[in-house]
Each structure stands twice: as structure tokens, then as C-alpha cells.
Design a protein that fits this description.
Number of strands: 4
Radius of gyration: 14 Å
Mean pLDDT: 88
Largest sheet: 4 strands, mixed
Structural class: alpha+beta
Distance between the termini: 36 Å
């Protein structure tokens, strides 16, 4: 059986996004880091740039009556 270690491998990040009509609450589990952005095209595009700095393996977005569509569409482009 061949085993590997995590030495030399970038840690993957899990991002959680709590969606509201006006704001998105962003949380990076492994870093215990959180912040808030407006649920607008410009702010979500900035968020996309910010998230590119991390080795993101998964983004979980709360489904909230359609308010999540914009963030899902923009982040899916990346």
C-alpha cells in the first residue's frame, strides 16, 4: 500500500457563503477568517479576485430564494 503525506502540498480551503438580499457573509473554515461584502456584481467580482489567492477546493453557498444566483454565476466563471 502506497501512502502519501501532506508535506509540500498546499492546503485546500473550504469557503462558506451565507447569502442575504443585500450582503454575503464569507467564511474560510481552515483559517477561521470571515468578512462581509455587498451582494452586488462589483463586490462579487472583487470577492472572486480575493478568493483566487487561496487554494479553494470547495465553495458552499446557501440557497436563499434566488439571492444566491448572482454569486454562483460569477464565481462559477472562475
Amino acid at each position: 500500500m502506497k501512502t502519501t503525506t501532506s508535506a509540500g502540498i498546499k492546503q485546500q480551503r473550504n469557503i462558506g457563503i451565507d447569502v442575504g438580499k443585500s450582503f454575503l457573509d464569507i467564511y474560510i473554515l481552515e483559517l477561521d477568517r470571515h468578512w462581509q461584502v455587498h451582494n452586488t456584481v462589483d463586490d462579487i467580482r472583487e470577492l472572486r479576485k480575493t478568493l483566487k489567492r487561496f487554494n479553494v477546493s470547495r465553495i458552499v453557498v446557501e440557497a436563499t430564494g434566488g439571492y444566491e444566483r448572482l454569486v454562483v454565476e460569477i464565481l462559477a466563471e472562475a
